[in-house]
Amino acid sequence: MSVVSNDKGLRAALTNTPKITLFENLRDFLDSVSQTSPQYQTIRAYYKFDSDSTIRGIQSIIEEKFEGTNFDVDGSEYDRKGVTGGEDYDDAELEKVTAKIKKFTIQKISLISEHLLEVWCNFDALIDLTFACDYADYNDSIWDSEDKEYINLRKCTAIENHQVLTGFAFRIQFDTAKNRAEKEELVSDVPSSFGQATLIDRKYVPNIDDEIDRPNDDGLCSQITKKVTCQICKKEFEVDFSKYAELSSSYEHGEDQMGAERQYDVEEQEITCPHCGAIYRVSGFYTEYPVGCLNQNETVIKFMSAKKS
C-alpha cells in the first residue's frame, strides 16, 4: 500500500510499517508508478545529472521562459505589523537569470507510436535572478507647494538578487530508436512575483539617467529654473537663475553627514522677456545639500514694466 503525505506526525507513525510505502508528495508517487514502464530507465538515464548537454538544454528552456516574462518585484520590507522599509519600485527589469536542475521526476509515460513516447515529467530547479529596479526617491526631493509637484525628483536604481526553488512541468517526446528527446516543451508558468521571501541582497547604484541637478564646471547647480508667463505678451519663457548666481557660503556638515551645504546668492538685476522685451527683476538665493542637489529655493522673479521705449 502507498501513502502520500507530508504530515510529519503521520509519516513518523507509519515509518517502518510493513507493506506501506511512504511518499512525501504526489510527484514522487507518480514517479514510482512510472518505474513499472520498461522505458522508464531509458529516459532516466538520458536525463542523468552528469550529462551536461541534456540537463543544460532543460535549464536553457527555463531561462528563456523567464527572459520573456514581465515581473512584479516588491521592494518593501515587512514584519508582522506591516511595512517597515524598503522601496516602492516603478519598474523592474531582469538583468540575469540562471537555472540549476536539482531533481527530476517522471509522472507519466504514454506510447505515441512504435518508437515515440510522450513523457510528462517535472524538473525542480534552483533559480537565481538579478533585477534592476527603478524608483523615485521622494524623501530626497523637494515638494513645491506652489506648483504642486516635486522639484528635481530623483530617479534611483537598486540591484536586487533573488533565489527561488520551484518545479517546472515538461511534456517531452522521446524517440527510443534514436535514444534522444525530439521535443521538450515547458508547459507550466514561471514565477513572476518576487519580494522579501526570495530576496538575497540589494545594492543601490548611481543612475546615469538620474534627474538630480548636477554641478557645472563653476560649481554652480545647473538648471535652477522657473517658467514664467509674461504679463504683457502672455507667452511662456524660462529663467535659469544659476546664470546670475554666485557662491556666498559653504558649510561642512561633518563626516557622518552628506558633505558640504552651499548657498548661492542671485544678484538683483533686470532681465527681459525674450518674446516682447518686457522687464523683470530676479533676486533671491538657493542652497545645495549635498553639493549638486537643490535643497532650498528662494529665488524670485518680479514684473517691473513693459518694454522700454
Structure in a nutshell:
The protein is 13% helix and 50% strand. The chain has helices at 8-14, 26-34, 40-46, 52-67; strands at residues 2-4, 21-23, 72-73, 76-79, 82-86, 91-111, 116-137, 142-144, 149-151, 154-175, 180-186, 193-194, 199-205, 225-229, 236-240, 245-252, 260-272, 279-288, 294-297, 300-305.
Structural account:
The protein folds into three domains: 1-27, no CATH class; 35-205, no CATH class; 225-305, no CATH class. With 309 residues, the chain is mainly β. It starts with a strand and ends with a strand. Strands 6, 7, 10, 11 and 13 form a five-stranded antiparallel sheet that branches. The protein contains four helices and 20 strands. Strand 8 (142-144) and strand 9 form a beta hairpin.
How are the SSEs ordered, and which strands pair?
Blueprint: E1 2-4, H1 8-14, E2 21-23, H2 26-34, H3 40-46, H4 52-67, E3 72-73, E4 76-79, E5 82-86, E6 91-111, E7 116-137, E8 142-144, E9 149-151, E10 154-175, E11 180-186, E12 193-194, E13 199-205, E14 225-229, E15 236-240, E16 245-252, E17 260-272, E18 279-288, E19 294-297, E20 300-305
Parallel strand pairs: 1-2, 3-12
Antiparallel strand pairs: 4-5, 6-7, 7-10, 8-9, 10-11, 10-13, 14-15, 16-17, 17-18, 18-19, 18-20
